[in-house]
Amino acid sequence: MDWWRGLTGLMFFLILPSNIIGLWWVVGSPLTFDRNAICRRSKKLRGSSSQRDVCRKEPEVVEKVVEGTQIGLTECQYQLRYSKWNCTTVQNSVGKVLKQADTRETAFLNAMTSAGATYSVTQACSMGDLVQCGCADRPRKKKNHGTSEDKNDDLEGTWEWGGCDDNIEFGYSKSKEFMDAQQKKRNDIRTLITLHNNEAGRTVIRMNMFRECKCHGLSGSCTLQTCWRKMPSFRKVGNLLKEKFNGAAKVTGGNTGEEIIPEDSTVKFPTAADLVYSTDSPDYCRPNRKVGSLGTHGRRCNGSALDVGGCDILCCGRGATEYEFTRQEPCRCRFHWCCDVQCDTCKTTQVVHICNGYDTTPRKS
Protein backbone atom coordinates (compact mmCIF):
# COMPACT_ATOMS: atom_id res chain seq x y z
CA MET A 1 0.00 0.00 0.00
CA ASP A 2 3.03 2.32 0.34
CA TRP A 3 3.17 2.86 -3.42
CA TRP A 4 -0.52 3.78 -3.43
CA ARG A 5 -0.03 6.34 -0.65
CA GLY A 6 2.92 7.80 -2.50
CA LEU A 7 0.92 8.04 -5.73
CA THR A 8 -2.00 9.66 -3.89
CA GLY A 9 0.34 12.20 -2.29
CA LEU A 10 1.94 12.98 -5.66
CA MET A 11 -1.45 13.51 -7.34
CA PHE A 12 -2.50 15.87 -4.57
CA PHE A 13 0.80 17.72 -4.86
CA LEU A 14 0.32 18.28 -8.58
CA ILE A 15 -3.27 19.54 -8.42
CA LEU A 16 -2.89 21.78 -5.37
CA PRO A 17 -3.78 25.40 -6.21
CA SER A 18 -0.71 27.61 -5.95
CA ASN A 19 -2.60 30.31 -4.06
CA ILE A 20 -2.89 28.23 -0.89
CA ILE A 21 0.43 29.46 0.44
CA GLY A 22 -0.51 29.98 4.06
CA LEU A 23 -1.55 26.33 4.21
CA TRP A 24 2.01 25.29 3.36
CA TRP A 25 1.85 21.88 4.99
CA VAL A 26 -0.87 20.65 2.67
CA VAL A 27 1.72 20.85 -0.11
CA GLY A 28 3.40 17.79 1.35
CA SER A 29 0.01 16.08 1.52
CA PRO A 30 -1.66 15.08 4.79
CA LEU A 31 -0.69 11.52 3.81
CA THR A 32 3.06 12.04 3.63
CA PHE A 33 4.10 15.25 5.44
CA ASP A 34 7.21 15.24 3.27
CA ARG A 35 9.61 18.04 4.20
CA ASN A 36 11.43 17.84 0.87
CA ALA A 37 8.20 18.18 -1.11
CA ILE A 38 7.18 21.16 0.99
CA CYS A 39 10.51 22.90 0.48
CA ARG A 40 10.58 22.18 -3.26
CA ARG A 41 7.13 23.66 -3.59
CA SER A 42 8.00 26.74 -1.53
CA LYS A 43 10.60 27.69 -4.12
CA LYS A 44 7.86 28.09 -6.71
CA LEU A 45 5.50 30.18 -4.58
CA ARG A 46 5.54 33.93 -4.57
CA GLY A 47 5.82 35.72 -1.27
CA SER A 48 7.17 32.70 0.62
CA SER A 49 10.81 33.79 0.96
CA SER A 50 10.70 33.03 4.70
CA GLN A 51 9.86 29.43 3.90
CA ARG A 52 12.70 29.21 1.40
CA ASP A 53 15.13 30.69 3.90
CA VAL A 54 14.22 28.22 6.62
CA CYS A 55 14.30 25.31 4.16
CA ARG A 56 17.77 26.29 2.99
CA LYS A 57 19.36 27.26 6.31
CA GLU A 58 17.51 25.17 8.89
CA PRO A 59 16.16 21.94 7.37
CA GLU A 60 16.14 20.26 10.79
CA VAL A 61 13.76 22.97 12.05
CA VAL A 62 11.48 22.31 9.09
CA GLU A 63 11.50 18.63 10.04
CA LYS A 64 10.23 19.49 13.53
CA VAL A 65 7.63 21.86 12.13
CA VAL A 66 6.33 19.11 9.86
CA GLU A 67 6.24 16.65 12.77
CA GLY A 68 4.31 19.24 14.73
CA THR A 69 1.67 19.71 12.06
CA GLN A 70 1.15 15.96 12.07
CA ILE A 71 0.69 16.10 15.85
CA GLY A 72 -1.81 18.92 15.34
CA LEU A 73 -3.77 16.94 12.76
CA THR A 74 -3.92 13.92 15.06
CA GLU A 75 -5.22 16.09 17.89
CA CYS A 76 -7.74 17.65 15.52
CA GLN A 77 -9.07 14.15 14.81
CA TYR A 78 -9.35 13.46 18.53
CA GLN A 79 -11.10 16.71 19.35
CA LEU A 80 -13.59 16.42 16.47
CA ARG A 81 -14.16 12.68 16.81
CA TYR A 82 -17.83 13.24 17.64
CA SER A 83 -18.42 16.01 15.09
CA LYS A 84 -20.03 15.56 11.68
CA TRP A 85 -16.68 16.38 10.09
CA ASN A 86 -14.04 14.61 12.13
CA CYS A 87 -10.82 15.94 10.57
CA THR A 88 -10.38 12.78 8.56
CA THR A 89 -7.75 12.44 5.83
CA VAL A 90 -9.77 9.75 4.02
CA GLN A 91 -10.34 10.69 0.36
CA ASN A 92 -8.26 13.81 0.99
CA SER A 93 -11.06 15.29 3.06
CA VAL A 94 -8.67 17.59 4.95
CA GLY A 95 -7.24 19.08 1.76
CA LYS A 96 -10.68 19.69 0.30
CA VAL A 97 -11.96 21.31 3.48
CA LEU A 98 -8.96 23.64 3.54
CA LYS A 99 -9.62 24.72 -0.04
CA GLN A 100 -13.11 25.87 0.90
CA ALA A 101 -13.93 29.29 2.30
CA ASP A 102 -12.94 30.04 5.89
CA THR A 103 -15.23 27.94 8.08
CA ARG A 104 -15.02 26.91 11.73
CA GLU A 105 -13.38 23.67 10.68
CA THR A 106 -10.73 25.47 8.64
CA ALA A 107 -10.07 27.81 11.55
CA PHE A 108 -9.65 24.93 13.99
CA LEU A 109 -7.38 22.95 11.69
CA ASN A 110 -5.13 25.96 11.03
CA ALA A 111 -4.90 26.72 14.75
CA MET A 112 -4.20 23.10 15.67
CA THR A 113 -1.41 22.63 13.12
CA SER A 114 0.15 25.98 14.02
CA ALA A 115 0.06 25.00 17.69
CA GLY A 116 1.53 21.61 16.82
CA ALA A 117 4.44 23.23 14.95
CA THR A 118 5.12 25.55 17.89
CA TYR A 119 4.94 22.67 20.34
CA SER A 120 7.22 20.36 18.36
CA VAL A 121 9.97 22.94 17.80
CA THR A 122 9.85 24.10 21.43
CA GLN A 123 10.05 20.53 22.70
CA ALA A 124 12.97 19.80 20.37
CA CYS A 125 14.86 22.73 21.91
CA SER A 126 14.38 21.34 25.43
CA MET A 127 15.41 17.85 24.33
CA GLY A 128 18.61 19.14 22.71
CA ASP A 129 17.55 17.98 19.25
CA LEU A 130 18.25 21.32 17.55
CA VAL A 131 21.61 23.09 17.42
CA GLN A 132 19.85 26.46 16.95
CA CYS A 133 18.32 26.49 20.41
CA GLY A 134 18.34 25.00 23.86
CA CYS A 135 16.67 25.80 27.15
CA ALA A 136 15.18 29.28 27.40
CA ASP A 137 17.31 32.07 28.85
CA ARG A 138 15.86 33.85 31.85
CA PRO A 139 17.06 35.40 35.11
CA ARG A 140 17.68 32.74 37.74
CA LYS A 141 16.80 34.71 40.85
CA LYS A 142 15.96 32.76 43.95
CA LYS A 143 12.38 33.29 45.08
CA ASN A 144 10.39 32.42 48.17
CA HIS A 145 6.83 31.23 48.42
CA GLY A 146 4.34 33.96 47.63
CA THR A 147 6.63 36.17 45.58
CA SER A 148 6.17 34.66 42.11
CA GLU A 149 4.19 36.13 39.28
CA ASP A 150 3.07 32.59 38.38
CA LYS A 151 -0.31 31.10 39.17
CA ASN A 152 1.24 28.22 41.16
CA ASP A 153 1.86 30.20 44.33
CA ASP A 154 0.80 27.39 46.66
CA LEU A 155 4.27 25.85 46.86
CA GLU A 156 5.53 25.04 50.32
CA GLY A 157 8.98 26.06 51.46
CA THR A 158 11.65 27.77 49.40
CA TRP A 159 12.06 27.38 45.67
CA GLU A 160 14.39 28.66 43.00
CA TRP A 161 14.58 28.65 39.24
CA GLY A 162 16.49 25.74 37.79
CA GLY A 163 16.21 22.93 35.32
CA CYS A 164 15.36 23.61 31.69
CA ASP A 165 12.73 26.15 30.70
CA ASP A 166 10.83 25.27 27.53
CA ASN A 167 12.02 27.74 24.90
CA ILE A 168 8.54 28.84 23.81
CA GLU A 169 9.82 32.02 22.19
CA PHE A 170 12.00 30.10 19.74
CA GLY A 171 9.21 27.65 18.92
CA TYR A 172 6.76 30.51 18.53
CA SER A 173 9.02 32.49 16.22
CA LYS A 174 9.89 29.54 13.96
CA SER A 175 6.27 28.47 13.66
CA LYS A 176 5.29 32.03 12.79
CA GLU A 177 8.18 32.46 10.36
CA PHE A 178 7.38 29.29 8.42
CA MET A 179 3.62 28.87 8.69
CA ASP A 180 2.66 32.49 8.12
CA ALA A 181 4.11 32.61 4.62
CA GLN A 182 2.03 35.27 2.94
CA GLN A 183 -0.39 34.88 0.08
CA LYS A 184 -0.20 37.26 -2.85
CA LYS A 185 -2.41 39.84 -1.15
CA ARG A 186 -1.57 40.53 2.46
CA ASN A 187 -4.84 42.30 3.11
CA ASP A 188 -7.44 39.97 1.61
CA ILE A 189 -9.81 38.64 4.24
CA ARG A 190 -8.83 35.01 3.77
CA THR A 191 -5.20 35.77 4.48
CA LEU A 192 -6.12 37.86 7.52
CA ILE A 193 -8.30 35.08 8.90
CA THR A 194 -5.67 32.40 8.28
CA LEU A 195 -2.98 34.44 9.98
CA HIS A 196 -5.27 35.21 12.91
CA ASN A 197 -6.08 31.52 13.49
CA ASN A 198 -2.43 30.53 13.11
CA GLU A 199 -1.65 33.07 15.82
CA ALA A 200 -4.43 31.74 18.03
CA GLY A 201 -2.84 28.28 18.02
CA ARG A 202 0.51 29.66 19.09
CA THR A 203 -0.97 32.06 21.63
CA VAL A 204 -2.88 29.36 23.50
CA ILE A 205 0.41 27.61 24.25
CA ARG A 206 2.17 30.83 25.18
CA MET A 207 -0.62 31.89 27.55
CA ASN A 208 -0.73 28.54 29.35
CA MET A 209 2.91 28.00 30.21
CA PHE A 210 3.16 26.86 33.80
CA ARG A 211 5.74 26.27 36.51
CA GLU A 212 6.79 22.70 37.20
CA CYS A 213 8.89 21.90 40.26
CA LYS A 214 10.96 19.09 41.73
CA CYS A 215 11.42 18.67 45.48
CA HIS A 216 14.80 18.31 47.18
CA GLY A 217 15.45 17.29 50.75
CA LEU A 218 15.70 14.24 53.00
CA SER A 219 12.85 11.73 52.80
CA GLY A 220 10.82 13.95 50.53
CA SER A 221 10.74 16.82 53.00
CA CYS A 222 10.73 19.25 50.10
CA THR A 223 12.72 21.90 51.95
CA LEU A 224 13.83 23.26 48.59
CA GLN A 225 12.24 23.06 45.18
CA THR A 226 13.76 23.65 41.77
CA CYS A 227 11.28 25.02 39.23
CA TRP A 228 11.20 25.62 35.50
CA ARG A 229 8.76 26.91 32.89
CA LYS A 230 6.95 24.22 30.93
CA MET A 231 4.38 23.98 28.15
CA PRO A 232 0.99 22.45 28.95
CA SER A 233 0.31 18.98 27.58
CA PHE A 234 -0.78 19.03 23.96
CA ARG A 235 -4.06 17.42 24.97
CA LYS A 236 -4.76 20.49 27.10
CA VAL A 237 -3.86 22.71 24.15
CA GLY A 238 -6.35 20.75 22.06
CA ASN A 239 -9.03 21.06 24.73
CA LEU A 240 -8.53 24.82 24.94
CA LEU A 241 -8.67 25.26 21.17
CA LYS A 242 -11.80 23.09 21.02
CA GLU A 243 -13.44 25.57 23.40
CA LYS A 244 -12.35 28.35 21.04
CA PHE A 245 -13.81 26.35 18.14
CA ASN A 246 -17.17 26.13 19.88
CA GLY A 247 -17.17 29.87 20.51
CA ALA A 248 -15.58 31.01 17.23
CA ALA A 249 -16.62 34.47 16.00
CA LYS A 250 -17.92 35.15 12.50
CA VAL A 251 -16.05 38.09 11.02
CA THR A 252 -15.86 40.24 7.92
CA GLY A 253 -13.29 42.62 6.49
CA GLY A 254 -12.92 46.10 7.98
CA ASN A 255 -13.06 49.33 6.01
CA THR A 256 -9.28 49.61 5.85
CA GLY A 257 -8.90 46.17 4.28
CA GLU A 258 -6.22 45.40 6.85
CA GLU A 259 -8.35 44.16 9.72
CA ILE A 260 -11.19 41.81 10.53
CA ILE A 261 -14.24 42.83 12.54
CA PRO A 262 -17.18 40.87 13.97
CA GLU A 263 -20.03 40.50 11.49
CA ASP A 264 -22.44 41.20 14.34
CA SER A 265 -21.76 44.61 15.87
CA THR A 266 -22.95 43.35 19.26
CA VAL A 267 -20.19 40.74 19.41
CA LYS A 268 -16.89 41.70 21.04
CA PHE A 269 -13.74 41.88 18.98
CA PRO A 270 -11.89 38.54 18.96
CA THR A 271 -8.70 38.37 20.99
CA ALA A 272 -5.44 36.90 19.69
CA ALA A 273 -6.42 33.54 21.20
CA ASP A 274 -9.92 33.40 19.67
CA LEU A 275 -10.80 31.57 16.47
CA VAL A 276 -12.57 33.38 13.64
CA TYR A 277 -14.31 32.38 10.41
CA SER A 278 -16.17 34.13 7.61
CA THR A 279 -18.36 31.43 6.06
CA ASP A 280 -20.88 29.05 7.58
CA SER A 281 -19.91 25.38 7.42
CA PRO A 282 -21.33 23.21 4.65
CA ASP A 283 -23.67 20.34 5.41
CA TYR A 284 -21.47 17.45 6.43
CA CYS A 285 -24.44 15.10 6.89
CA ARG A 286 -24.20 13.68 3.37
CA PRO A 287 -21.24 12.89 1.12
CA ASN A 288 -20.05 15.82 -0.97
CA ARG A 289 -16.68 15.40 -2.66
CA LYS A 290 -16.39 19.08 -3.50
CA VAL A 291 -16.36 20.22 0.13
CA GLY A 292 -14.63 17.14 1.52
CA SER A 293 -17.67 15.71 3.30
CA LEU A 294 -17.80 11.93 3.71
CA GLY A 295 -21.23 12.05 5.34
CA THR A 296 -22.03 10.39 8.65
CA HIS A 297 -23.28 7.02 7.45
CA GLY A 298 -21.57 4.30 9.48
CA ARG A 299 -20.31 6.66 12.17
CA ARG A 300 -20.52 5.46 15.76
CA CYS A 301 -22.70 7.64 17.98
CA ASN A 302 -23.80 7.83 21.61
CA GLY A 303 -27.36 6.55 21.93
CA SER A 304 -28.00 8.35 25.23
CA ALA A 305 -26.25 11.68 24.62
CA LEU A 306 -27.96 14.87 23.50
CA ASP A 307 -24.82 16.72 22.42
CA VAL A 308 -22.99 16.70 19.08
CA GLY A 309 -21.88 13.09 19.61
CA GLY A 310 -25.42 11.90 20.22
CA CYS A 311 -27.20 9.89 17.55
CA ASP A 312 -29.87 12.54 16.97
CA ILE A 313 -27.34 15.17 15.92
CA LEU A 314 -24.50 13.11 14.48
CA CYS A 315 -26.83 10.97 12.37
CA CYS A 316 -28.64 14.09 11.12
CA GLY A 317 -32.10 12.77 11.97
CA ARG A 318 -31.67 9.49 10.04
CA GLY A 319 -31.53 7.45 13.22
CA ALA A 320 -29.07 4.76 14.25
CA THR A 321 -29.01 1.00 14.46
CA GLU A 322 -28.09 -0.67 17.74
CA TYR A 323 -25.62 -3.55 17.71
CA GLU A 324 -24.74 -5.77 20.64
CA PHE A 325 -21.37 -7.50 20.87
CA THR A 326 -20.39 -10.15 23.40
CA ARG A 327 -16.83 -11.18 24.04
CA GLN A 328 -14.99 -13.38 26.48
CA GLU A 329 -11.94 -12.15 28.37
CA PRO A 330 -9.88 -13.12 31.44
CA CYS A 331 -11.05 -11.65 34.74
CA ARG A 332 -10.62 -12.02 38.54
CA CYS A 333 -7.06 -13.23 38.06
CA ARG A 334 -5.29 -14.71 41.10
CA PHE A 335 -1.61 -15.31 41.70
CA HIS A 336 -0.63 -18.65 43.25
CA TRP A 337 2.79 -19.31 44.68
CA CYS A 338 4.82 -20.07 42.68
CA CYS A 339 4.37 -19.11 39.80
CA ASP A 340 0.91 -19.64 38.48
CA VAL A 341 -1.82 -17.19 37.55
CA GLN A 342 -5.38 -18.45 37.39
CA CYS A 343 -8.17 -16.40 35.88
CA ASP A 344 -11.87 -16.81 35.42
CA THR A 345 -13.48 -16.18 32.06
CA CYS A 346 -16.00 -13.38 31.96
CA LYS A 347 -18.41 -12.36 29.27
CA THR A 348 -18.78 -8.67 28.56
CA THR A 349 -21.49 -7.16 26.43
CA GLN A 350 -21.03 -3.91 24.57
CA VAL A 351 -23.79 -1.98 22.88
CA VAL A 352 -22.90 0.38 20.04
CA HIS A 353 -24.99 2.63 17.84
CA ILE A 354 -24.15 3.18 14.18
CA CYS A 355 -25.66 5.96 12.07
CA ASN A 356 -28.04 4.73 9.39
CA GLY A 357 -27.51 5.28 5.69
CA TYR A 358 -29.25 7.66 3.33
CA ASP A 359 -32.66 7.29 1.78
CA THR A 360 -32.00 6.61 -1.88
CA THR A 361 -35.61 5.92 -2.82
CA PRO A 362 -36.49 8.05 -5.88
CA ARG A 363 -38.98 10.76 -5.08
CA LYS A 364 -42.31 10.71 -6.91
CA SER A 365 -42.93 13.74 -9.03
Task: Write a compact overview of the structure shown.
The chain is an alpha+beta fold and 365 residues long.
What does this molecule look like?
- The chain is of the alpha+beta class and 365 residues long.
- 36% of the residues lie in helices and 19% in strands.
- The strands form four sheets. A four-stranded mixed beta sheet has the order 1-2-4-3, with no helix packed on it.
- Strand 3 (210-216) and strand 4 form a beta hairpin.
- Helix 6 packs across helix 7 (168-179).
- The longest helix is centred in the N-terminal third of the chain and has 24 residues, at 104-127.
- The two termini are 46 Å apart.
- One of its GO terms (biological process) is neuron differentiation.
- It is found in: Secreted, Extracellular space, Extracellular matrix.
- InterPro entries: Wnt, Wnt6, Wnt_C, Wnt_CS.
- Pfam families: wnt (PF00110).
- This is Protein Wnt.
Largest sheet: 4 strands, mixed
Strand content: 15-25%
- Share of helix, binned: 25-40%
Shape: globular
Across the major sheet, the strand order is 1-2-4-3
Function: Ligand for members of the frizzled family of seven transmembrane receptors.
Protein name: Protein Wnt
GO molecular function, one term: frizzled binding
Keywords: Developmental protein, Disulfide bond, Extracellular matrix, Glycoprotein, Lipoprotein, Membrane, Secreted, Transmembrane, Transmembrane helix, Wnt signaling pathway
